[in-house]
Amino acid sequence: PLCIAVSKDEGKSWSKSVTIENDREGWYCYTSITFQEHRMLLSYNACIFPTWCMNKLKVASLGKSWFKKHFYTP
Fold first, then answer.
1. In degrees to the nearest 10, what's the CA dihedral of 23, 27, 29, 35?
2. Banded pLDDT at 32 (limits 50, 70, 90)
3. Lower CB count within 10 Å: N or C terminus of the chain?
4. Do strands 18-21 and 39-48 pair parallel, antiparallel, or not at all (unpaired)?
5. How far apart are the first and last CA of the chain?
6. Spacing of C-alpha 70 from chain mean position
7. What mean pLDDT do residues 49-67 have?
């Protein structure tokens, strides 16, 4: 699975991770994060069965509200 976790103390501790993609027959690599105004763009390469080659470049756009929902709600 491809997951995200957040640290609020410079990496001393981490939140519970949240799954972005969960294809059990695939794997994900070469992630890149770009911040643009109130969004985070997460790009990554997806290797999916049956080809097992790095044939899919994906981009997830996660907004400020997504982070609040998953990491900053009491």
1. 10
2. very high
3. C
4. unpaired
5. 26
6. 12
7. 82
